């Protein structure tokens, strides 16, 4: 079976981490975020995947090559200008080999999901649907596509990012399309699946089916979600065959070092060759490769970029530190503060808060 992976977004809500790396390639439990989904797709029977790229396109081929490492055949199709989600699907379909009624799996590139992809494909084929959407329940549907369904599973409406969503049942970003339905998407201009294609298919009376599954699901679109996803992989709440080395809920990657007097927990990932100094406290955080947390620093629910340094006694809560930045001794960064790559905050014991 063939699939298309949507990975052309700029990931603006995750800046500064996404300035140099596209969101789907950010490291998550030691591998690029999207690798967890690639493996699940492969295990559900997908053999060929077309990556629909745009932002920093060449980095995907550098990370995955022809796919043989993962037992997949990966092809790259790049948009010069972003074509939107459905425009990207149509554009990437030029590299598909299947035809007619064949099912094509479409994946958003920023999702961690434990749902049963094979069961979704089976439901699609059984219903002879034009499109089958994985749907999941969330507490607040305003950031998502809200998708009410009839008791028989038929989708009644698709309402993207509305202040008044009709239901908390939302589009989970994994679709099965009938190949011939992809061929009907217009070419040569941006097209949104969420604002144009799905509402259009519904208006035309095409059968769109919801596959509701309450498995683990997370859109890794914000720093808070990034921290949560990494924590859930480290703690095993999100199952992934890639994650094998967790010890007491802490993921130590190759060459990571933690001083015995440091307290590290709550699903923290300590990246390759990263270091945590004596009496430091690190909780539910992600240290990218070669990051350094010096003695006595406190780091909670934060992301420390590649090679970044948190100096002695600094306090970080819900902070994002860009690659190579330095947070000088004694600084306090709380409430979502973000430090751009390469910045050096001097040791002035200043309190930076994104709340004020
Ligand atoms: N190739 C390409 N070109 N990919 C794109 C483009 C584009 O122009 N625009 C977005 N993408 C990719 C992103 O890289 C991402 O993997 C995926 O499409 C979804 O984009 P997001 O920017 O993450 O969208 P969202 O999270 O706000 O909303 C979408 O996902 C929600 C579930 O997580 C929508 O599909 C919602 O309906 C859905 O609920
Ligand atoms: Mg998203």
From TrEMBL:
Stored Gene3D superfamilies: Hexapeptide repeat proteins, Spore Coat Polysaccharide Biosynthesis Protein SpsA, Chain A
Alphabetized InterPro entries for the sequence: GMPPB_C, Mannose-1P_guanyltransferase, NTP_transferase_dom, Nucleotide-diphossugar_trans
Recorded GO MF terms: mannose-1-phosphate guanylyltransferase (GTP) activity
Domain Nucleotidyl transferase, chain residue ranges per copy: 3-233
Residues annotated as domain Mannose-1-phosphate guanyltransferase C-terminal: 250-330
Keywords for this protein: Nucleotidyltransferase, Transferase
Highest taxon in the source lineage: Bacteria
EC number annotated for this UniProt entry: 2.7.7.13
Keyword check for Transferase: yes
Family: Belongs to the transferase hexapeptide repeat family.
PANTHER family: SUGAR-1-PHOSPHATE GUANYL TRANSFERASE
Protein name: Mannose-1-phosphate guanylyltransferase
């Amino acid at each position: 079976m063939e699939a298309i992976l949507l990975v052309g977004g700029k990931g603006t809500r995750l800046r500064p981490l996404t300035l140099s790396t596209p969101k789907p390639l950010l490291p998550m439990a030691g591998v690029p975020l999207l690798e967890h989904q690639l493996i699940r797709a492969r295990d559900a029977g997908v053999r060929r995947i077309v990556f629909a790229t745009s932002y920093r396109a060449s980095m995907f081929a550098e990370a995955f090559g022809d796919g043989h490492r993962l037992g997949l055949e990966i092809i790259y199709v790049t948009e010069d200008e972003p074509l939107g989600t459905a425009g990207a699907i149509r554009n990437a379909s030029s590299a598909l080999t299947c035809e007619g009624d064949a099912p094509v799996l479409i994946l958003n590139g920023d999702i961690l999901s434990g749902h049963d992809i094979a069961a979704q494909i089976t439901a699609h084929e059984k219903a002879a649907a034009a499109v089958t959407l994985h749907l999941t329940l969330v507490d607040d549907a305003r950031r998502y596509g809200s998708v009410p369904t009839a008791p028989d599973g038929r989708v009644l409406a698709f309402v993207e990012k509305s202040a008044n969503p009709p239901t908390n049942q939302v589009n989970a970003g994994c679709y099965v399309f009938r190949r011939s339905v992809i061929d009907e998407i217009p070419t040569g201009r941006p097209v949104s699946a969420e604002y144009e294609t799905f509402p259009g298919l519904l208006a035309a009376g095409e059968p769109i089916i919801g596959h509701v599954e309450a498995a683990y699901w997370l859109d890794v679109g914000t720093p808070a979600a990034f921290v949560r996803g990494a924590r859930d992989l480290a703690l095993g709440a999100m199952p992934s065959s890639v994650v094998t080395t967790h010890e007491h809920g802490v993921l130590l990657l190759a060459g990571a070092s933690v001083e015995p007097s440091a307290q590290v927990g709550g699903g923290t990932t300590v990246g390759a060759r990263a270091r945590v100094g004596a009496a430091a406290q690190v909780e539910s955080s992600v240290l990218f490769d070669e990051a350094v947390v010096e003695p006595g620093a406190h780091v909670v629910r934060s992301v420390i970029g590649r090679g970044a340094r948190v100096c002695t006694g600094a306090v970080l809560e819900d902070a994002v530190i860009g690659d190579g930045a330095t947070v000088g001794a004694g600084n306090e960064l709380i409430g979502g503060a973000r430090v751009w790559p390469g910045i050096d905050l001097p040791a002035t014991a200043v309190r930076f808060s994104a709340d004020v």
